[in-house]
Amino acid sequence: SYELSQPVSVSVALGETAKISCGGNRIGSKNVHWIQHKPGQAPVLVLYKDLNRPSGIPDRFSGSNSGNTAILTISRAQAGDEADYYCQVWDSTSYVVLGGGTKLTV
Amino acid sequence: QVQLVQSGPELRKPGASVKISCTASGYTFSSQTINWMRRVPGQGLEWMGWININDAKATYAQGFTGRFVFSLDTSVNTAYLHITGLKTDDSGVYYCARGLNPADFWGQGTLITVSS
């Protein structure tokens, strides 16, 4: 089965840049999506297909995907960005695959 | 706008069953699959599986076969998750989400508490 690995936690200073990685075998050949989940709220898609932002998501959120690692970059981090972030891919044998999640602390 | 509205919190005893709902609006219900995910305390989101709206065929992730059943009522644009033989480990928040690649809109979650 296909697996994704994420760091358990990432810390960033207010106004600085956070990078959250998502590792997987040849993940660069897949579309990677990123989901933000704040406590008590519905999860929100913040990036899809590696680098595309849904309507309403600020351009401070960006992404890249190459080789065995995809990265979610959050620029000018704000207190409101504190959340758990999950990467997600579609795999032909495992179907929907979620990373273990990364807790972002600002 | 797209919305997925889930039913309210549930409290059950071990061994009981529960059925929760997810009602969609703002898009053509048959155009997208519905996923079910859950988050139990101390763990991350887990994908439970999906149901195809057009033929009601369900696909279950490993660990979610047998006690978990997905169903539909397309007349009211609603998907259901039925869990039988509840265990205390099933306590958590259950989410429905639209689409597979990606799951682009999510419900607000339904808290299921299993306790004697």
Report on the architecture of this protein.
The complex is a heterodimer of chains A (106) and B (116). With 106 residues, chain A is an all-beta fold. In chain A, 0% of the residues lie in helices and 44% in strands. Chain A is built from no helices and nine strands. Chain A has strands spanning 9-11, 18-23, 33-37, 44-47, 61-66, 69-74, 83-91, 95-98, 102-105. In chain A, strands 1, 3, 4, 7, 8 and 9 form a six-stranded mixed sheet that branches. A three-stranded antiparallel sheet of chain A has the order 2-6-5, with no helix packed on it. In chain A, strand 5 (61-66) and strand 6 (69-74) form a beta hairpin. Chain A is globular, with a radius of gyration of 13 Å. Chain A starts with 8 loop residues before the first strand and ends with a strand. Chain B is mostly beta strands. Helices cover 0% and strands 49% of the residues of chain B. Chain B contains no helices and eleven strands. Chain B has strands spanning 3-6, 10-12, 18-25, 34-39, 45-51, 58-60, 68-73, 78-83, 92-98, 105-106, 110-114. In chain B, the strands form two sheets. In chain B, strands 2, 4, 5, 6, 9, 10 and 11 form a seven-stranded mixed sheet that branches. Classes of the chains: A mainly beta (106), B mainly beta (116). Chain A binds chain B through residues 1, 31, 33, 35, 37, 41-45, 48-49, 54, 84, 86, 88, 90, 95-101, and chain B through 35, 37, 39, 44-47, 50, 59, 61-62, 95, 97, 100-109.
Termini gap of chain A:
34 Å
Strand count of chain A = 9
Structural class of chain B: mainly beta
CA(first)-CA(last) distance of chain B: 40 Å
Strand content of the residues of chain A, in percent? 35-45%
Structural class of chain A: mainly beta
Return the string of H and E elements of chain B. EEEEEEEEEEE
Low-confidence stretches of chain B: none
- So how many helices of chain A? 0
**SS strand fraction of chain B:** over 45%
Low confidence ranges of chain A: none
Let me know the average pLDDT of chain A: 96
Oligomer designation: heterodimer
Topology as H/E string of chain A? Answer: EEEEEEEEE
- Gyration radius of chain B, rounded: 13 Å
Rg for CA atoms of chain A: 13 Å
Report the major sheet of chain B.
7 strands, mixed
Helix content of chain A: under 10%
Largest interface: A-B, 24 and 23 residues
What's the total number of strands of chain B?
11
Shape of chain A: globular
